[in-house]
Structure formats: structure tokens, C-alpha cells
Amino acid sequence: MKAYKNDAGEIRLFRPEKNMARFNTSSARIALPTFDPEVLTGLIAKLVKLDERFIPNQKGYSLYLRPTMIGTQATLGVGPPGSALMFVIASPVGPYYPTGFKAISLEATDYAVRAWPGGVGDKKLGANYAPCIVPQLEAAKRGFHQNLWLFGKEEYVTEVGTMNMWVAMKNKETGQKELITAPIDGTILEGITRDSILSLAKEKLVPEGWKVVERQYTMFELDDAAKEGRLLEAFGSGTAAVVSPVRNISWKGKIVDCGLKPDQEAGEIAQSMKEWIERRQYGEEEHEWSYRV
């Protein structure tokens, strides 16, 4: 998660209770100890206060926080560790991508698998990151910012290497505008920013006639929507990037255009989501998601 400082010098964490819950679930999945969420949140708040001088106060900048736990028992074997170490990594950060809040390009990856039903793809574990490095490097060699993980012969869209994935498009049958993201089925991370966007979409987009959908969708479906002009925009979401617009996706040797005009860096929904979330992160809009240190 991140710590944010506004112009008034106020420091805030964003939805720490959700981060703590996911940390506990992830720890339990690999037989590491769990903890009292309120106690750890309080300790992190004290750390952030001590390290206040390292928190940038300009928009888009923050103190990145990575609570971490590792087993430390000095034996080799397959079993729960008898001891563990919890620590927090903290580092000032700016925009995740060098492009800043500008559209990125993705390469669809179908030759390797990031996660599978019944596995640990929905947990925040180091084991989920290491296998992603080579496909990410391969995508970068070909000029793409990230890879987009596909799953199964249907080529379901799951998530980007560092973000949950979203598409806004018109329904083929009804023409209704829909904001779509993959479901929580064990193959994607339960993103805190993802959950925030779902909530904001239901609060602000549904009254304007949008439909918010969590369902499986395929690259074939995206390609079809792009060809027919129904794919309005696509973007990723995550703690590091917050919201990152997507210009196009390389898939099966062709480029799938994601709806942005050549001189446009972000679609209306991505731009709005970024602004809505940042207002709550920096305390411009008082909200229960914002934890004041």
C-alpha cells in the first residue's frame, strides 16, 4: 500500500484494513502466522510518521509500503516454519510507468500460465511474481510496457503483469455501455484498487446508465469489439500504477486497438477513476477509505 501527503501536510493510508486482510489470507495460505490487523496498521502508521520526511507531497507521488513476512526457521524441509519475520519495506515513489499517466501497450501472453483455479494466483505471494519476470522481459524486448496474461484455450483475459485489467465497451446485443473486469476465481489478485473501482463504478457510473460486470471475457471478444467499434477504452489498476490507460494489445501477430484516439492518452472512465481515487487518497474528499495518520 502507500502513504500519501497532501499540501496541508496530512498523511494518509489508503484502505489499510483491506491490505491487512489480504496479507493475513496470503500468510495463512502458505502456513505463515497471522496477526492482529489493527495492531500492524498502528505500527505502520508510527513508521510512516517517523519517516514523514520521505513522503513526497505532489500528486501522483507517495511513500510505497510493502509489509512482508518470511519464514526464518533454520532447517530444510517441507512444512510450516517454526519462526517467521515480519518487516515493512518503505520507499518514495512516483508514477509507476516512465510514461506517467499516459497510455501503455500490452503484449498478450498465452505460452505461459501465471495462475490457475485452485492455485495461489489470488494471493500476494512471491511465488506469483518470479514466473512473471521472463514473459515481462520478452514483452519489453518487443517494445511493450507489460504483458497481459491469458488463460486456457478460450484465452480468457485475466490480469496484466502488475495490474488488474478493465475494459469499457458496448454490449453486442443491447448497445449498453459496460465496464468489465475478470471475476475473483483464483486466477487474479484481489486488488484493493480493483475493489475501489468496482465501488466507484457502482456509485457513479451505474446512475448514468452503465452496467458494471465481473465475468470471464476473452481476447477473441475484445478483438471482435475493437473491429466493430464497440471497445471504448481499456485500463489497468493497482496500488503501484493506480490507474493506467491501455492504448493497444499485441495478440497473435496483430494489434488490437483499445479505443483511444492518436492524440488521446486516457479514456473518460480511466481519467475519472484516477481523479476519484486520488481525491480520497490525498484527503481532498473525506471518506472512510482514507486512514489519517
From TrEMBL:
A UniProt-annotated Pfam family: Aminotran_4
TM region positions: none
Any one annotated GO CC term: mitochondrion
Entries under InterPro entries matching the protein: Aminotrans_IV, Aminotransferase-like, B_amino_transII, BCAT-like_C, BCAT-like_N, BCAT_family
N6-(pyridoxal phosphate)lysine PTM sites in chain numbering: 124
UniProt-listed GO biological process terms: L-leucine biosynthetic process; L-valine biosynthetic process
Co-factor requirement: pyridoxal 5'-phosphate
GO molecular function, one term: branched-chain-amino-acid transaminase activity
Secretion signal, residue range per the UniProt entry: none
This protein's UniProt keywords: Amino-acid biosynthesis, Aminotransferase, Branched-chain amino acid biosynthesis, Pyridoxal phosphate, Transferase
Family: Belongs to the class-IV pyridoxal-phosphate-dependent aminotransferase family.
Protein's name according to its UniProt entry: Branched-chain-amino-acid aminotransferase
Species of origin: Pseudogymnoascus verrucosus
